[in-house]
Structure prediction request, 254 residues.
Amino acid sequence: MTEDIKKRIIKVLKKYEDGLTISEIAKLLGVHRHTITKYVYELTGSKKIRQRRVGPAKLCYFKRSKTKSKSQLSVFLFLPLIPALILAQTTNFTNSFMENSIDTLIQTQILNISQVNEIDIINESSITDSIPNETCEELWNCVEWSSCIDGQQTRTCVDLNLCGTTLDKPSETQLCIECNLTCDVCEELDPVNCTCNPITSCILGDGCCPDNCNYTADPDCVPECLANEDCDKTSLSKYVLILVFLSQNIPKGF
Prediction:
């Protein structure tokens, strides 16, 4: 578990070359900030990452190995040619001998430069492959959909495992209908289809009686017999008892 978190920290810092704060790393990886702080200190101590203070914030960076640029190496490798060129102008060697000598030196230096380039490519590959290329399972986390603007909603989704793939990435856009309907008390708004639908929840005191409710579950539903003044004493007593019980158990401020 410890090595897995360290690998993920290195991987996300390689992706964000401008640096990240500890809080940003924790948010991207879905790990508590205190845990990330511990492993950042360990990685800094082992010189796998580095930290730099920028204003009030301290940014973390992936520490890449320093190598000489190809242009610097090219100049360095061609330095031995200078004496040969001077010698060619100040001696009485034949033109054919000098041409062959210079050509040999140039070919040797070109071969050395190509070998240096191959070493640079190997070094870059070793940095990229410092974290094992294991099978990565995408774990997407998306924020809530935005408001409907011009018939479209958007959201942002982030892969918490930072796999670098988008095979299972959820959609970040969807069509929508701008809805300005105002529903009645006993209706609820369906923003996707922009319709008002009858409520289905049995809620005490909302003055509504959904079709799936009765006076036992929701006293707002008056028994038909009571509405028709045709209740027997049993039904009436039961309804009154329910009202009394609920009135005594309704929380204050309801």
